[in-house]
Each structure stands twice: as structure tokens, then as C-alpha cells.
Amino acid sequence: MIIHTLASEDLSICVLPENGGAITQGVFQGQNFLAIPPYPAVEPKFLGTENDWLAAWNGGWQPLLPNAGGQCLEGKYPQGFHGNASQTTWNVLEKSALSISLVWSDENLHSQRSININENEVSVLGSVVNLDSEPRPLIVTEHLVLGSDFLNSKITLEPVGSAQFRELEYDGSGKGTGFEPWERFQKNSWSSVTSQTPARMGVFSDISCIRVSNENYEIEISWDARNLPYLWIWEEMAYTQEQPWNGQYLALGIEPSSASDGVGLGGDSAKTLAVNEKFNWSVQLKIQKRASK
Asked: How far apart, in whole angstroms, are the C-alpha atoms of residue 279 and residue 216?
């Protein structure tokens, strides 16, 4: 596979077009901040399960579309776990030292993705158009997973604004009665992540920015909440011992999404994309050393 590197003085990322256009590595001032799996990735399996997807995951940050969450093998365009575009080949349209543009065109969908960096920021712009003769269901999620050096100390989550939150089951399905004010969960240990944090998932609504800090660095993630109104939180601190996790994965997912849960197209949180409708979204990640450090 051909790896494309974008680099400024302090920030560099690696992009892997042949595996979902993923940003597989992010380094700021010598520190890795994106998740790196403990095992070498295998070849992706078409219409695969969660275990298949995890085995082919190269880590980091990739688009999940036109599905995010569980397999959905029904309908005109069956989808594997996290969507058929998430681990297939994206073609390179343009490339420079600080940017790359990619395209995926299949299943009567046409999706473009541009990735740009500067001294301390990664910006992603995405779009998808429905070229089919019928409306179709769609879920878009930015599978942005922090890890590596960034998780070596206690993590603090600080949503910006009047956040609502809901706990999810670890399979992404809903838990409890619905969204409630973040303050309730903040008092119940959700605002911090340590080596003792159990494996868990949750979802925010009513925000468009979150700050994630460790001992030395702060990462601010912002997104277009008009089209990605939810933010999934996935925490796996080498906690799950069962296959395929084996107590080996360190991952903190901060994932803007169009869906309120991780059930996938088989659930009820997909949007409907009309014929020839274009759906756009954007996500920015800004990293900096904490002012007091």
C-alpha cells in the first residue's frame, strides 16, 4: 500500500487511500496522538463483521459510510460493519505537501474527501451524492480515534456548550431512557479517562466542539453539527479481554456522526438521502501544548 505523508514543522499525518482513505498516523512535536492497533492489519473482508473490520483496521481516523455500526445485509446495497467505503480503496485526486483530496465512487454513491493540515490542525471536508434512481438510507461518521502517546496520562473530556449525553451499550445500541444533561454523567466519572476506565460507549448531542486534554497537550475537535449532530464517545483502555480485543487495544474514539447510536442502517437513526442530493460535513482537530506546561 502507498502511504501519503503530509507534514508541517510540528505536525505530520500519514494517509492510506487503499484502506478507506484513513489517516493512520498523527504526530505532533514528536508525540503520536492517534490510535495504533496492537496487531498488523489483514486484508479487509467485503460485508464483514465487527471482528473482520477490527482485524483490518490500521488505526487512526477514517470515514464510515454509507453505514456506521452493525452490519446491514438487507436491501439493494448490503453493508458490512462500519460501511463498505470505510476500508476499501479511495482514489487520489490531488496531493501537495499539506493536503490531499480523495474520491470513492461505487454503489451509486460519489464521495469526496479533502484533508488539509497546518502547523497544529487537521481539517477534513467530506461530501457524498446519491446517484441512484431512488432515495437511500445513509449514516456518516468520522471514526476519529485517539491513542498511542496521548493516552499515557489521565484524559479529561470537556464538551463546549450545554451538552446532552446518553450512555450506549458497548455494541452501540441505546441504554437508558434518552439524552440527559451532561452534568449528571460528569459527576459519574464520564469526564475523565484513565487506565482503570471500563470499556464503554456514549453519545453527545447539542454541541459542536469538545476539548480532550492529557497531562501535557490539549486536542480540540469541532465539527459541522448541522449535518453531524451527534458525537460518539468510545473508550477502550485495554479493558476488554474477550476476542478480538484480548486486552490489547488502547483507543479513545471522539466521533462526530449523523446518527444517534451505533446500531447502523438496521436501526432507526439513518437519514434519507434523496436522488441527486449532496450531503456535506466537516471536522477539525487542533492540537497544542497546554499553556501551563
From this structure: 37
247: left (phi over 0), alpha (psi -120 to 50) or beta: left
Q: Which residues, 6 or more positions from 73, have their beta carbon under 8 angstroms from its beta carbon?
A: 47, 79
CA angle 110, 116, 119 (to 5 degrees): 170
Residue 90: exposed, middle, or buried by beta-carbon count in 10 A (0-12, 13-18, 19+)? Answer: buried
Grid coordinates of 37: 492497533
Nearest to 13 by CA among 192, 181, 144, 190: 144
CATH number of 4-289: 2.70.98.10
Can you tell me the mean pLDDT for 13-18? 98
- pLDDT, mean of residues 119-132: 99
**Residue ranges of the domains in the chain?**
4-289
Q: What is the pTM of this model?
A: 0.97
